[in-house]
Design goal:
By secondary structure, this protein is of the alpha/beta class. The chain has ten helices and 18 strands. Helix 3 packs across helix 4. The longest helix is centred in the C-terminal third of the chain and has 31 residues. This is Enoyl reductase (ER) domain-containing protein.
């Protein structure tokens, strides 16, 4: 058979399957819809384009037919400009995805065509997930538990892997330890609470009023509404790990002071991204490295604690554990609202205006 051409309904995404012409792919899909970022700016710059090329797979890559992709704060920040993306515009944005395996590279052993998977790309990936067909490495994906939908699954991996890196790779939390999370109502913070609880830790979190009950239901022992309570007054004792998803000078000060000697403070708001965006990699990265080193020395000397900038990265072991927790009903991130991919501009506008406080997912 030389080729089979199919048209996917209203998406008009054209795919071509040529089993007689295999190279690094078992199937080749040549065109699909994708949300492109042609220039930096507000939500209005996003363009849903037809017949965007699908690249050939490398041996370790998987082609995923997307069913749902979530909107992350990183996606919104990328719209306004990052130096790493500037030379490559237009790019496809998006990090999370849940869908079905459409094709696999020659060395992929963990997945087969038709299998339901979910996963996330690293923060600087140039070809994102807002597309009918996403390309991820084998280590960036895991099997989707049957107990959750694609919409639910798509909201989880990027946030959960960010939390996992902070708690498991940086702080190396252990059963019985105390963990404090600033911003427990956000996706990363809420994932961190559930991961820490599942690890047998005692968790306290700051939040706003409407998320308090959800945080307590997830297993936190104390949830402090920072709009009405003074966390320094109502929280007692010292902690082994502090995850600061807010990253303001005040939360840094409070978090450091709450740590016992040998504890770990992790912030999502490190200076690496802002400095490299401002000065480029050649100048910005050494500046960021120097800034981080000074912070580490400062807090090790003054408080005897470790200081970390934490960020998401691919972690097959972490993703496997996240899958297990999701399947067991111990890890979930509530989805506030869904939009069809054709309404991606409206979805970004709603998030930017803070009209939707919770997680937003785009359905394909």
């Amino acid at each position: 058979m030389r080729g089979m051409r199919s048209l996917r309904g209203s998406s008009k995404a054209v795919s071509i399957f040529r089993p007689a012409r295999l190279s690094s792919l078992r199937s080749i899909f040549t065109g699909c819809r994708a949300v492109m970022l042609p220039r930096f700016g507000g939500p209005e710059v996003l363009e849903l384009r037809e017949n965007v090329p699908v690249p050939n797979l490398n041996p370790n890559e998987v082609l995923v037919r997307a069913k749902a992709v979530s909107v992350n704060p990183l996606d919104c920040r990328a719209r306004y400009g990052r130096s790493v993306f500037q030379p490559h515009l237009p790019i496809i944005i998006g990090r999370d995805v849940s869908g079905e395996v459409a094709a696999v590279g020659n060395s992929v052993k963990s997945f087969k065509v038709g299998q339901e998977v979910f996963g996330a790309l690293h923060p600087t990936a140039l070809r994102g997930t807002y597309t009918d067909y996403g390309v991820l490495s084998e280590e960036e994906l895991t099997e989707k538990p049957a107990s959750v939908s694609h919409v639910e699954a798509s909201a989880i991996p990027f946030a959960a892997l960010t939390a996992w890196r902070a708690l498991k790779s940086n702080a190396r939390i252990l059963e019985g330890q105390r963990v404090l999370v600033f911003g427990g109502g956000g996706a990363v913070g809420f994932a961190a609470i559930q991961i820490a609880v599942a690890s047998g830790c005692h968790v306290t979190a700051s939040c706003v009023g409407q998320t308090r009950e959800r945080i307590l239901a997830a297993g936190a022992e104390q949830a402090v509404d920072y709009t009405t309570e003074d966390i320094e007054m109502v929280v007692k004792g010292k902690f082994d790990a502090v995850l600061d998803t807010i990253g303001r000078p005040e939360t840094e000060r409070i978090g450091i002071n709450f740590l016992r000697k040998g504890g770990n403070y992790m912030t999502l708001q490190g200076e690496a991204a802002s400095l490299t965006d401002r000065y480029g990699f050649v100048v910005g990265l050494p500046l960021a490295t120097s800034f981080l080193a000074k912070k580490k020395i400062q807090y090790q000397y003054s408080h005897g604690v470790d200081y970390w900038w934490t960020y998401m990265r691919a972690d097959p072991e972490g993703l496997a554990e996240i899958k297990r927790l999701v399947g067991a009903g111990k890890l979930k991130i509530p989805v506030e609202k869904t939009f069809p991919i054709t309404e991606v501009v409206a979805a970004h506008e709603a998030k930017e205006k803070k009209e939707i406080p919770g997680k937003v997912v785009l359905e394909l």
